[in-house]
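Input structure tokens:
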């Protein structure tokens, strides 16, 4: 990328207008010019170098007012949509297994869950995390419709009936994620829940699923059509979106590789996933406070002062708050589910499965945070290692308790990702300047 050089005097006006004070060092000035003025990186560095005096200035606190924590809808999409997905699995598992057979449903879900999470993570990275992301996606409605058709045709050609099931579920769940983003969550939830009585009443289950997928697709097309085209397209980088999709695939595999879960056995195995899913959504929602905690923590600190005393505590406090919310709510909801399991017909072994799902939720929270801070390769490597460990447990057939694979995979992912997250938060000035929220 190239552009006309920016005069130092003009650059100084831009930087001081954005910061509310003179820049403290060259890096700070370059970041402001690149982020706010669209100046290419090399030109921004050159202009910033011309702005600075020979001797570094004394760090000064920023006089700019930090915005209030925003409720970033894109950050809530995966959690909200996945909650509806879990409810759908719980409601549909028994009718689907009775009509199609447990083996077909199990194979369908083993493909549908990883594929859905891959598309959710990829779309979020490419479009939904960016200004007017849905409006940018609306300009590609034709490609979305072709993709929806391919999601059904290709798996059907490979897996037969199980592939058709996987494709219809993927179209419904991925389209539902986008409907939630278009502020149509009620329409999506009603469509999913309305299918359950029809299945129980004896209506052909594949016809019901096809109708649900078609209604979801039509509702999404209408919702996207109503969005105004953005003035300037700002999608995320393809390489980062592909990496995010691969992370979603790995997390989906971690959910289905444990043979003791048995999503096709009825409502309870899917309901066991609900406590950790709801808790993870709450914990992830709390992480939005990082957008204010990190800038406030490094206010008045030079970017060269990487390990400034006390600067790491505010971001760590937000992280601890998110982890505490996740663990507390997951434990409380799991206890409620354990009390209800005899009434629902589940065996007592589901307690260990709840622990496994809780670890997967904790790993997902940390992985998503690490990916958002620009460390997607590390996050992907951790997920690959965790999924490989879970696959090894499945192949060995050595599962002393229900959820063994979930526990091992989730714990390994947490161990691999947590140090990297801590490393990012220890140096918030460097993280803010070089990685955080740069698409």
């Amino acid at each position: 990328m190239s552009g006309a050089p920016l005069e130092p005097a003009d650059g100084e006006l831009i930087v001081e207008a954005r910061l509310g004070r003179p820049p403290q060092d060259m890096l700070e000035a370059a970041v402001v010019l690149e982020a706010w003025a669209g100046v290419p990186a090399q030109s921004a560095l050159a202009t910033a170098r011309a702005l600075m005096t020979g001797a570094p200035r004394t760090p000064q606190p920023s006089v700019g007012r930090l915005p209030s924590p925003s409720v970033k809808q894109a950050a809530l999409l995966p959690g909200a949509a996945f909650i509806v997905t879990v409810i759908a699995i719980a409601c549909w598992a028994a009718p689907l297994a009775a009509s199609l057979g447990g083996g077909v449903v199990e194979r369908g879900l083993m493909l549908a869950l990883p594929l859905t999470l891959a598309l959710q993570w990829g779309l979020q990275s490419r479009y939904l995390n960016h200004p007017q992301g849905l409006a940018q996606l609306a300009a590609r409605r034709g490609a979305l419709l072709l993709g929806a058709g391919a999601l059904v045709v290709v798996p059907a050609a490979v897996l037969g009936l199980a592939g058709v099931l996987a494709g219809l579920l993927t179209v419904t769940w991925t389209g539902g994620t986008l409907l939630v983003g278009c502020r149509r969550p009620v329409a999506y939830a009603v469509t999913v829940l309305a299918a359950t009585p029809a299945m129980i009443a004896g209506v052909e289950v594949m016809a019901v699923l096809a109708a649900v997928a078609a209604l979801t697709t039509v509702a999404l097309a209408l919702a996207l059509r109503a969005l105004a085209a953005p003035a300037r397209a700002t999608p995320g980088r393809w390489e980062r979106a592909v990496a995010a999709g691969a992370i979603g695939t790995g997390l989906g595999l971690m959910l289905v590789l444990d043979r003791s879960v048995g999503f096709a056995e009825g409502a309870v195995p899917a309901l066991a996933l609900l406590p950790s899913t709801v808790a993870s959504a709450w914990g992830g929602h709390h992480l939005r406070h990082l957008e204010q905690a990190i800038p406030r923590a490094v206010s008045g600190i030079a970017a060269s002062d990487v390990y400034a005393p006390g600067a790491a505590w505010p971001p760590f406090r937000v992280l601890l708050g998110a982890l505490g919310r996740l663990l507390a709510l997951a434990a409380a909801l799991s206890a409620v589910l354990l009390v209800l399991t005899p009434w629902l017909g589940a065996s007592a072994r589901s307690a260990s499965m709840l622990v496994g799902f809780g670890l997967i939720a904790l790993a997902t929270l940390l992985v998503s945070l690490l990916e958002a801070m620009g460390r997607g390769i590390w996050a992907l490597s951790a997920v690959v290692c965790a999924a490989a460990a879970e696959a090894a447990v499945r192949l060995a057939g050595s599962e002393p308790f229900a959820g063994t694979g979930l526990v091992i995979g989730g714990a390994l992912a947490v161990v691999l990702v947590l140090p990297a997250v801590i490393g990012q938060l220890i140096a918030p000035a460097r993280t803010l300047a070089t990685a955080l929220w740069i698409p």
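The radius of gyration is 24 Å. The chain has 19 helices and no strands.
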